[in-house]
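Example (one chain per record):
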Amino acid sequence: MPVAAATPRKPSAINAVRHDWHRGEIEALFTLPFNDLLFRAAQVHREHFDPNAVQVSTLLSIKTGACPEDCKYCSQSGHYNTELEKEKLLEVARVVEEARAAREKGASRFCMGAAWRSPRAKDMPYVLDMVRQVKALGMETCMTLGMLDEGQAKDLAEAGLDYYNHNLDTSPEYYGQVITTRTYGDRLTTLANVRDAGMKVCCGGIVGMGENRDDRVGLLQQLANLPHHPESVPINMLVKIEGTPLAEVDDLDPFEFVRTVAVARILMPESYVRLSAGRQEMNDEAQALCFLAGANSIFYGERLLTTDNPEANHDKQLFERLGIHPLDPRHEASDEAHEEALRQQVAEQEAADNGLYRDAMAYQADGKRAAKHVLDKDTGRPAQRPVDA
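Predicted structure:
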């Protein structure tokens, strides 16, 4: 018999972190009256987070198109004609430039995505260099590169990667209706490799792909019953791409999307629940309900890999209307990012003291002096300031 999720209990018992959720319990949450569900989710959120602070990330496609996977929602799949222009792996300098710009706009985490089944050996040195240089800016780093074996996960961790994104997408039961070129087990293996290497996990799914509520229950049960909850849980609304098999699927009820966010917050109380793809199709009211339901992370900027995202200025205006503030990127930078910036600062100083520092390296391509890695005297976190002439 399903557990009655609305049964009054002490907040500490209701909001406990668990990894043993039964399907009936999750179904009961989904069927709560909308106001009751949002009230409970908001309680859980307030117990673990500042309810008016939102973590801000920026996502960059570092390699676009020609992916061999057949994910039926994806514009980058080589199986479908979406008229997406293929691009090679971006140069490291270009990626670092984009990261620096994202940081200046308030992003505390920089996410890099490549349309691969898994990284190729010849590309790994460039990918690892991207991680090191973006971390040197004092930002958290995240990548999504497809499946990882143990060695690849270890290399990324040693380079300093904070998060690895690898979504489960949907329930095990519905998965075969969406993807056939890799299994659910393949995805779980990659997540295990990421954990074993010491990295944090970014893992969620996509709703509105023609699945039913049972599949949304199944997806969240899989996520919540992992040995460790993902530190970030992106909840994506399907973005319909012309040329993909899911281009004509029926729209998901916006209230059902908000319910999914609320249940995710209750099941994974210490995770950041992120509004990801699909925000372009949401009005401000729907997004506000998601924040009330416990969403506390967004992607910021005009593009999410290959799909549109609300413009940064509009996001800023919405935050102001709702009284929401971005988490301070200096405080959100991971300890590892902080240590990396400190090591960079010490190394530069030692090189300068020894007369080995090449002054030419301090200049950017436009002839301006590059920012030097220093530590903010008030926060102890990485800060940026121009090098004295």
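Caption: The chain has 14 helices and 14 strands.
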